[in-house]
Amino acid sequence: MPDPELLCPAGSPEKLHTALVYGADAVYMGLPDLNLRAQSKGFRGFREIQEAVARAREYGAKAYVCLNILAREKHLLSAEKNLEKMGDIGPDGLIIADPGILGMAREICPQIPVHLSTQANTSNSAAVRFWGSLGVKRVNLAREMGLRDIRQCGRNRGDVELEVFVHGAMCMALSGRCLLSAHLNERSANLGLCTHPCRFDYRPRLILEEGKRPGRDTWIVEEGEDFSRILAAEDLCLIKYLSWLGKNGVSALKIEGRMKSVAYLAQVTDVYKTALTDLKEKNFRPQLYLSELEKTATRPLSSGFFLPRAKTFIKPRPRESRGILARITGERSGDSRPVQIKARWEKGMQAELLLPGLNRPRLKAGEYGLEDEAGQEVKTAHPGRICFSAANTRILSRE
């Protein structure tokens, strides 16, 4: 069986480039409408999507386009126009959740493979084969499935490929079909407009109404004075189980995060790509991967529903910001490279290089420097400025 594909988010051209540089085998992206990350607006039109598909192929990677909202009647015309354009763009697959849009895709652009989104909530092998009978090439299994059910699906999937989320945010609702955002803020999660109410702060309150005093709060019981994120799910992390997933029929390992930062994407992609390479070389190092992923975590990382009993691997500790300090924006010219400053850079600041393969050399003061176009030393650089550095790097991160 071929090695599983590492499928990474590409929420913008910059994130696309990052995922490809750090080893993604495939990327997924979306237009401003008809996908579940409508707020990202990373790709502004069909031309940018077409360029993104071409860029992915330059790296030998595949590119999938998301049209995975649960459509309403008013979206059908837009879906038809989007699908008509896909024939010219030629992505390697369309990620779809809605049966109606699936039918339209098979009719309008049958040459493009269809991948079924996790939003379709496919949780058993019979459903996998059903979707396969409708022309679906790959099914992203429901995130609520445990390893026993995934194993059975792998054995009984027929000719359909299986895809599983291995890292990133989880939703408190089944397969992300949540109505909280629509109820509280009139922005539907199923149309790509989720405001993430599950991450809001809440305080439990119990109100008792007495039968002879209807409409009147007789007793109010409040739990504590502080608000907390009692509805928020932990994040998923299946880095320790990559070998198991590959041996049990999973063709693609998907990372969530089209709305996440470039720094996050670089580090997570690098960890999973390195882990897959290490597996082939029989040098798997789970503790090293977890220690690197801890640097990206803002919530606990856990096994989610994968294990019979959920296990939390990492509880992030409070720490200073670890964002991107600067990023290479062009090829080396002489002894230096153009660097786009992402955060305030002071002369003498210690930094760390984020190089593919979990290569993390540290730069001490005096080992590198910044210059302007005239070759003059830059002591302080602010976000957005282009400078030049002799550091051999793709991304620089603050320690």
Give a structural overview.
The protein has helices spanning 13-21, 46-58, 76-89, 99-108, 125-133, 147-156, 180-185, 242-247, 262-280, 286-294, and strands spanning 5-9, 26-30, 62-67, 93-96, 114-116, 136-140, 161-168, 205-209, 217-222, 235-237, 250-255, 301-302, 312-314, 324-328, 337-341, 345-346, 351-353, 362-363, 370-371, 380-381, 386-389, 395-398. It has 399 residues and is of the alpha/beta class. It has two domains: 5-175 and 233-314, Alpha-Beta Barrel (TIM Barrel), CATH 3.20.20; 324-398, Beta Barrel (Elongation Factor Tu (Ef-tu), domain 3). It has an eight-stranded parallel beta barrel with strand order 1-2-3-4-5-6-7-11, surrounded by six helices. Strands 18-17-22-14-15-21-19 form a seven-stranded antiparallel beta sheet, with no helix packed on it. Strands 8-9 form a two-stranded antiparallel ribbon. Helix 3 (76-89) crosses helix 4. The longest helix has 19 residues, at 262-280. The chain is globular and about 80 Å long.
